[in-house]
From TrEMBL:
Residues 14-23 have a biased composition (Acidic residues). PANTHER family: PERIPLASMIC BINDING COMPONENT OF ABC TRANSPORTER. Gene3D superfamilies: Dipeptide-binding Protein, Domain 3. Residues 24-37 have a biased composition (Low complexity). This is Solute-binding protein family 5 domain-containing protein. One of its GO terms (biological process) is peptide transport. One of its GO terms (molecular function) is peptide transmembrane transporter activity.
Length: 696
């Protein structure tokens, strides 16, 4: 009946991904009372469990922005249509949403909301790791992990998967790289950075850097070796670049549909696709891999987390943002990442009474930025970037997209979110940085445009060559929050006379347009932002999902730029000057892409982001490198981080029992959001009655 009324017992301690059985292991037994019966009028049987009856529901329903017609679990496909696969693969690990600390297989949760057990143990694929700095990491996997078909989800499967990944990335004949991973044993995986031998670069990393990369709570899970092993053999046999390309062409076009997952048993995790009847056009039904199913022959092997829950089915509902809203309004989603707030995406006006907010927290690494492509000639201009930032009401952009209750404007412009800025830098340093306007300052915007060499013809700004000034802003239709922010940007720029084209795109189109290997087919986009550590922000990493200060190169060792790299993949010069005075913003008129400052300090950003990760640096030296990155961002505004947000989850309090809001059961996530951690960990619990407290 909704939120558990018991004391939390747990205290307070990452996409919105995301029941109890009759197993004797989780069914409490009454305390023995001896061989004599107690008199009828005594309370001797008060410790006996009360009959619970039947659960209110046998299915937990979630939503995923995809379609069964295009779903593809092949992570190498040219378009990313894997959304939903997170519910069909084991939890890698879980991460605390407050402290960002990781937890691994065997993590215990007290469960006062579950009437038939006091606690549960959650299995994750990773069971731990060891770091042998500056090169080696050893990760252990739980030996109970299996694919749906019963085959081991082990280190051998992982090595095969990532060896294919290595070849698919074009490394077959690359001389300055090597495959630096191996299955040390069936359940231990060893990966390492190159040490300078055999003509390879020396990629020594500090202990804390390696530890941050070990045993993560997200990323690709290994596709079954029945799929990957034939491609690995073909790559090994390929003797020419053309032969490798032919293998890659076959690989990326080899779709792994829902039907194929079913037929081959290639998924993992506690819920599996069990029949064609479960694959509908709008909904996918998965069944629990519990002991009862194993004994009946309905599943090959029971999953350890299946004993934690009394919910035998998981329904993934497909669609776009509009369908998600409709389902939410109809009470057809049982667990969803977000908060319930006035004027928000979900509010008391849009949700039925039995759909209520379950938990809320300030995301320490959850925010958004306006991502800018410097290959656009307007956005190469320092003064234009500043003008566009000044023109937009960023407080309104956050509120219009995420709602007042969810959006928290950024105060410190360091490229990090405020949680990290305030923990890494002194108050004195943060106060010395320039404060960019978070509300629209049209006068400053006009001044900056004029200083950039732009002039106004009628109501339209034009560049120094007389061309109308205009850029595109794109965002994925699957993330409804982005629409409000993008519309605010469009309205504010239109108000000052700077042209803007506004485009909502499907996920595959949008993500492809952001890829450097596809030519960066965009000018600007709303994009998520947040890392757990400062060296995540101040880094060089490749891929369209990268939010690092420097965009890395996919083909480079460790996908990071070399120290002598002059321009990154987004067109940003990396050997530049910053003002000697912290917080100064003075620059020449028509400063362009790489201004020559009168009182400048030369920095090599490519070198700095590498030095941060190298062993042997003192804390003071690392701090100074962080400060240079913050000063670079504060001056150049390569992108604009505008807010972080409150996050949480809402769900069905009529048909399910949930932890109290402050309970540790709500504290862990896989990737982004707690839904998958709760469902795949078996923390969800169907109610045995349908009473609930009405919302306030």
């Amino acid at each position: 009946m909704g939120l558990a009324g018991c004391p939390s017992g747990g205290g307070t301690d990452s996409t919105d991904e995301p029941g109890e059985t009759d197993d004797a292991a989780v069914t409490p037994t009454a305390t023995p009372t001896g061989e004599t019966e107690a008199p009828p009028d005594t309370d001797a049987d008060t410790d006996s469990p009360t009959p619970l009856g039947e659960p209110a529901t046998d299915v937990v329903r979630v939503f995923q922005a995809n379609s069964p017609d295009v779903f593809d679990a092949n992570v190498w496909a040219p378009q990313d249509n894997t959304t939903g696969v997170a519910f069909m693969t084991d939890l890698q690990a879980v991460r605390n949403v407050h402290t960002r600390q990781m937890a691994y297989s065997g993590v215990e949760f007290e469960t006062p909301w579950k009437p038939r057990t006091d606690s549960v143990s959650v299995m994750t694929w990773y069971s731990g790791y060891e770091v042998d700095a500056p090169y080696d990491v050893y990760e252990s996997h739980d030996d109970r992990a299996t694919y749906w078909n019963g085959d081991p989800l082990d280190a051998d499967a992982r090595e095969t998967h990532f060896h294919v990944d290595y070849f698919q990335a074009g490394n077959k004949f690359t001389e300055d790289t090597a495959f630096t991973q191996e299955a040390a044993s069936q359940w231990e995986y060893h990966w390492w950075n190159t040490d300078g031998s055999d003509g390879l670069p020396d990629d020594a990393q500090a202990q804390h850097i390696l530890a941050s990369q070990a045993a993560p709570n997200d990323g690709d899970m290994p596709i079954h070796p029945d799929f990957t092993q034939p491609y690995l053999e073909q790559y090994r046999d390929a003797g020419t670049a053309d032969a490798v390309s032919a293998v890659t062409d076959d690989l990326v076009s080899d779709r792994i549909s829902l039907q194929r997952l079913l037929e081959n048993g290639w998924g993992s995790g506690p819920y599996e696709i069990r029949s064609e009847d479960g694959i509908g056009s709008a909904e996918l039904t998965l069944h629990l891999r519990d002991e009862a199913a194993a004994e009946a022959g309905d599943t090959v092997v029971a999953h350890p987390n299946a004993a934690n829950t009394n919910v035998p089915k998981l329904a993934i509902q497909w669609g776009d943002g509009e369908r998600r809203q409709t389902l939410a309004s109809n009470g057809a989603i049982d667990l969803n990442g977000n908060i319930v707030a006035p004027n928000g995406l979900y509010s008391r006006e849009t949700l039925p009474d039995h759909m209520q907010e379950l938990t809320r927290w300030l995301r320490s690494e959850g925010g958004d930025k306006w991502r800018l492509n410097w290959n656009n000639p307007h956005l190469q201009n320092l003064w234009v970037r500043r003008a566009l930032v000044a023109a937009v009401d960023w407080t309104a952009a956050g509120a219009n997209g995420w709602g007042d209750a969810r959006s928290v404007p950024i105060e410190n412009h360091t490229y990090m979110l405020d949680a990290q800025s305030q923990s890494v830098f002194s108050g004195e340093f943060l106060d010395s940085l320039h404060s960019w306007p978070m509300e629209s300052d049209t006068e400053a915007a006009a001044e900056y445009l004029r200083r950039g060499g732009y002039s106004k013809q009628g109501d339209q700004w034009v560049d120094p060559n007389g061309n109308p000034a205009a850029i595109d802003v794109i965002f994925p239709s699957a993330i409804a929050d982005y629409a409000g922010a993008a519309q605010t940007i469009r309205a504010n720029l239109a108000e000052i006379g700077f042209g803007i084209n506004f485009s909502s795109q499907g996920w595959s189109t949008w993500s492809n347009n952001l890829r450097a290997d596809n030519g960066l087919n965009y000018d600007s986009s709303i994009f998520w932002h947040g890392y757990g550590e400062p060296f995540g922000y101040y880094n060089s990493s490749a891929g369209w999902v990268s939010g690092s200060l420097v965009m890395g190169k996919a083909g480079a060792p460790a996908q990071r730029v070399d120290p002598d790299t002059e321009v990154d993949a987004q067109g940003k010069p990396l050997q530049v000057e910053i003002p000697s005075e912290v917080g100064a913003i003075e620059a020449p008129d028509e400063a362009g892409i790489d201004p020559d400052l009168s009182d400048g300090e030369e920095i090599n950003l490519a070198g700095i982001v590498r030095e941060i990760r190298e062993p042997g640096k003192s804390e003071a030296e690392i701090q100074e490198l962080y400060r240079k990155c913050a000063r670079y961002y504060n001056y150049y505004l390569p992108h604009f981080v505008f807010h972080q947000y409150n996050w949480g989850a809402w769900g069905n309090v009529r048909d399910f029992e949930w932890p109290d809001p402050g309970h540790r059961g709500f504290d862990f996530e896989r990737g982004f959001g707690i839904s998958t951690a709760m469902i795949l960990g078996g923390l969800v619990e169907a109610s045995y009655d349908t009473g609930f407290q009405p919302p306030e």
